[in-house]
Specification:
Number of domains: 1
Distance between the termini: 51 Å
Bound molecules: 4'-phosphopantetheine
Strand content: 15-25%
Radius of gyration: 15 Å
Strand order of the largest sheet: 3-2-1-4-5
CATH class: Alpha Beta
């Protein structure tokens, strides 16, 4: 049976930090499924379809990575795809409490779903999607945070939103 893991998130938009985690996590399993949360309470900049598309483009050179949107509980999504574990990236100690709570909650909901943390590479430890959105909304340079293609899409989106 294929060894599979799920890497969930909002990915609004996908950053170089996410791509780093995807690359490294994909080496630990036969198949990595990137799950894009569909029913987020936050109002996203990009639709789930746009986010899925941007991630697909970013992982085009990683043959064992699949990208799909999901609704509802992460543990159900992980079970549905027979994932052995969930992957999350840890940037700094500030991520820890939220991640710890989420991992514990998920294990209470379903004791079989474990979370594996990968610490981000140093170069990406300060990057987050919210920083990218905020920087871009003030016309800042996001080229060190996202791929060229994502940079273009973020700029277009912000321009449209400000019209
Ligand atoms: O990139 P994010 O926004 O930090 O990702 C958060 C995500 C999508 C992993 C989390 O919100 C999630 O799993 N949501 C699905 C609903 C769920 O299962 N909630 C229970 C976990 S406490």
């Amino acid at each position: 049976m294929k060894k599979r893991a799920v890497y969930p998130g909002t990915f609004d938009p996908i950053t170089l930090g996410h791509i780093d985690i995807i690359k490294r996590a994909s080496k630990l399993v036969d198949e990595l499924i990137v799950g894009v949360l569909n029913n987020n309470s936050k109002t996203p900049l990009f639709t789930p379809e746009e986010r899925v598309e941007m991630i697909r483009e970013s992982v085009a050179d990683m043959p064992n990575v699949k990208v799909m949107a999901f609704d509802g509980l992460l543990v159900d999504f992980a079970k549905q795809h027979k994932a052995l574990f969930v992957v999350r990236g840890l940037r700094a100690v500030t991520d820890f409490e939220y991640e710890f709570q989420m991992a514990q909650a998920n294990r209470i909901i379903d004791k079989d779903v474990d979370t594996v943390f990968l610490t981000t590479s140093n170069a990406y430890s300060y990057i987050s999607s919210s920083t990218v959105r905020e920087l871009a909304s003030f016309g800042g340079d996001i080229s060190k945070f996202v791929t060229k293609s994502v940079e273009k899409k973020v700029k277009e989106k912000i321009k449209k939103r400000n019209k």
